[in-house]
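Predict the 3D structure for this chain.
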Amino acid sequence: MLYELLILFTLMRGPAHGYLIAKIINDMIGPYATFSHGRLYPLLARLEQQGLIQVEQSGSLQQGDRQTRVYRITEAGRERFHRLMMDTTSNLGEYREIFAHKVAGFGFLTPAERLQLIEHYIGYCKEHIQHIYSEAEDLLRKANDNEALRSPEQLEHILNVMHHWIEQWKLELCWAKRLRESVLQSQARQEEAVAAGGQNQAVESN
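Done. Predicted structure below.
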């Protein structure tokens, strides 16, 4: 899902050849993750077969004497991109990374759609925080019964990691709340502008 979303997001911004698509995606997922050409081109071929993108031979984008295959998103691809953006049930184990890339594509969504994704992510963060808290409490209760955890030092190391995870999710939660506030403020400004425009038209008509 992630790489399909990133390819379609890249092409939503305009046509591109394969090398540029790979570079943009690797810049987004780097520095250690790599989206190789061996993975990119089979996926591009599948998206083309599904009618989500189309390929053109471009004489204006040449590398040496060889024409470049330029990929362009289709209307079906735009619809697929929107479905992927609004999908909050797939790949939940990797959803923190996926959501970050979705935020980069918020410009293609309505404010209401952005809020829907943000509200879901706020709940997603809260669930992770609550889960880790519960696991830590359970760990403390059972520590005396688990020989591997009877060492105070070992228990401290494990709880330290869990605390670190909680702090990470709290940062994600704060970020999501800031995103929500930003969207709400933008909506309020738009509503004020519309209301002001309506008042001006009423005055002019009088």
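Residues 88 and 172 are 16 Å apart (CA to CA).
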